[in-house]
Each structure stands twice: as structure tokens, then as C-alpha cells.
Amino acid sequence: QPLDLSSRYQLACQLAREAAQRGLRLYRQRDQLAVEHKGGFSQDVVSAADRELEVFIKAELMKLFPEDGFVGEETGAQRLDARCIWVIDPIDGTACFLHGLHNWCVSIGLLVDGVPAIGAVADPNHDELFHGGRGFGAWVNEQPLRVSEAQDLRAGLLGVGTFYAEGKQHFMPFLGKLLDAGGMFLRNGSGALMTAYVAAGRLLGYYETCLKSWDCVAGLALLAESGGRCNNFLRGEGLLKGNPYLVACPGVYEQVAEMIGPSLDAD
Ligand code: 2AM
Ligand code: CA
Ligand code: CA
Ligand code: CA
């Protein structure tokens, strides 16, 4: 039976937009949200807004495509043997969201046979919907996305990020090498947005010492359609546990991969 990718693409865009508008209403009343720290008093926070939006998105997806698999940051994984697996983050950038910083979004991605095939990343504060997929191109609102043509790290900014736990030992050595090469870094707290910015040519690339699949599957679908390169992020247990992550325009990818060294694709 042929897969209906275009209905799924439409649904991803519509749900990302709708969830982002709901998120915006919650954001404006964020002082009333209950907040918890995952794993003790960590920087890893979650609020009632994250849970509410994930429940909403998951219910809508499963209503229309009950056979599809699902992975979400807040409610876990199901039916991973399906050909189509939705990979979503209801709020990517929760720390920003809760501190009143505008860098957060809703991220809805779809894997088809294990490959990122559709992505919708909605940023309601800037009125931007990044969307695209295999055979559909990649867009921000109605504008086509294209990665940077830069050949040199000095030509722009590189997104970076790290988690408070695994992988953080690789972060400072990398920053040192980046600065030595004349590069400069940006961290905005949302992996989905930073990946979309690479696809849009706003960032030259983006390195994260350990990212989760729900942060990046949507963005990876956009990147594939906008000429970007990425590492083999989904290898091993990447879908459920995460891996080191690098996306970049072709002109700087190798240079950054070399700075990171073997930890990028080590198991
Ligand atoms: P989140 O907001 O959905 O948890 C990469 O930086 C990813 O790590 C982000 O996409 C973000 O996803 C998460 N993140 C950002 N800042 C964080 C922080 N202070 N603590 C834990 N996770 C964070
Ligand atoms: Ca989180
Ligand atoms: Ca996230
Ligand atoms: Ca999240």
C-alpha cells in the first residue's frame, strides 16, 4: 500500500501551527504554570504546558494515522515497528519558554523507513513556520530554504549546545578550537530552531554534544531538502537515547567534524 505522505505533511504543518498558538497563550501566562525539574534540581525543566501540548498533538496524529508509530519527549514511544514514526517535541526550548525568552518552538517530524522525511517547526513569537519534506522542498512560510554557500567558518555563526549530563566534556575543547579557527558560536536553547536556521542559511552549522531525536528529526527533514549535511545521528539507539549531532552547510561540514574529532561518530 503506497504511503500518503502529502496528507501527513499537511497535518504536520497544521498541527505545528495550532499547537504553537496554544503554546503562545500559555507562554503569556507562564507564571501560572506548574514547573518540575527532571532528575532533581537540574536545568532540565518541564511544565504543564509541555504535557498539555504533547497530549494534544499525539491525539490528533493518532486519530488520523492510528497505525503510525510515535516518539515524544514527554509521553514516550510506541509502535516503533511501523514504517511511519512521528517524532515530536511539544515545546523545544522549555527553559527559554519559562524564563520569558522567545526562543522556543513546536517541532513535529516524521520518519519513513527510518529516514527523516517530513518536518514542521513552528515559532509563534516570530511568526515563522519552517516546513518541508521529501519531494516537497523546504520552506519558511512561503520562502524556499537554502543552506549557506560559505566555505569558511569565519564567514558566519555556528550554533552550539550541550546537555548538563552526558557529552559535556566535549564542549569546552570544541569551543576552544572553534575560536582558534576564527569561528563564533551561538546558543539559543532550541535544537529544532537552530537546525532550521542551518537549513535557512542563517547559521553555518550546528553542533550539539548529545541531542535527542525529538529535537532534530523535523529539522533533519528540512535540512535534506535545503542542501545541508548531517552526521549519522540516528545510528544505534539514537532514536530513543540520542547521539552527538552535527549539521552544516557543505562548505564547512568537514572542518567542523574534524574539530569535534572521533566522539562525533563513536558508539
Ligand atoms: P527542551 O527544551 O525540549 O528540553 C538542545 O540544546 C536541547 O536541549 C534543546 O533543544 C532543549 O530541548 C534542551 N535544552 C535546552 N536548554 C536546556 C537546559 N537548560 N536543560 C536541559 N535541556 C535543555
Ligand atoms: Ca526537555
Ligand atoms: Ca527539545
Ligand atoms: Ca521539549
UniProtKB/TrEMBL annotation:
This is Inositol-1-monophosphatase. It is an enzyme of class 3 (hydrolase). The keyword Magnesium applies. Mg(2+) 1 binds at E73, I91, D92, D215. Keywords: Hydrolase, Magnesium, Metal-binding, Transcription, Transcription antitermination, Transcription regulation. Coiled coil: none annotated. PROSITE patterns: IMP_1. Its EC number is 3.1.3.25.
